[in-house]
TrEMBL record:
Residues 23-81 form the DUF4167 domain. The lineage of its organism: Bacteria, Pseudomonadati, Pseudomonadota, Alphaproteobacteria, Rhodospirillales. It comes from Azospirillum brasilense. Residues 35-45 have a biased composition (Polar residues). Keywords: Plasmid. Residues 1-61 are annotated as: Disordered. This is DUF4167 domain-containing protein. Pfam families: DUF4167.
Amino acid sequence: MPFDNPAGDRARRQARFGKSAQRHAAQGTPAPSQPKVNGSAQQKHAQWLARASDAERSGDSVEAETCRQYAEHWFRVAHDRNDV
């Protein structure tokens, strides 16, 4: 009989009420205290400027402006930390 599967019934109930096994498994792991950033602020500034120039060369002025704004953010972070 297709209805003799209690594990399947449990999975359907959990899905219906917004519970999942993945969420329960992740509760025991501690969250990182700081987000991981690859590279220094000065390196991130240079990377975003390079992306901005690539976007400008490809003709995407909106993407270029977005990248310049990110570059400015990382410049300010580097300046606040006295990395520059």
